[in-house]
Specification:
With 78 residues, the chain is mainly β. Helix content is 0%, strand content 28%. The mean pLDDT is 91. Belongs to the Gfa family.
């Protein structure tokens, strides 16, 4: 997942072609393909109150996932 502000995202598929689901507290809108179920992105609000989009980088054309720096986080050890 890569987090950006909504103004930085350009959708190629119309929103009406997607389904939306909210889990648990219903604060994040998870968008899915109606046909295959792929989850390309989600929308929510950051802890600072800013609108944010979490993009599944596997849905971005011409990107090598190996070139993306990864920060591993061990929440279990907290």
């Amino acid at each position: 997942m890569w987090f950006i502000t909504p103004d930085k995202m350009h959708l190629l598929t119309p929103r009406e072609n997607m389904s939306t689901y909210t889990f648990n507290k219903h604060v994040i809108k998870h968008h899915f393909c109606k046909i295959c179920g792929m989850h390309p992105f989600g929308e929510g609000v950051s802890p600072q109150g800013n609108q944010m989009v979490a993009i599944n980088l596997r849905c971005v054309e011409d990107i090598s996932l190996d070139s993306i720096p990864v920060t591993h986080f061990d929440g279990k050890s907290l």
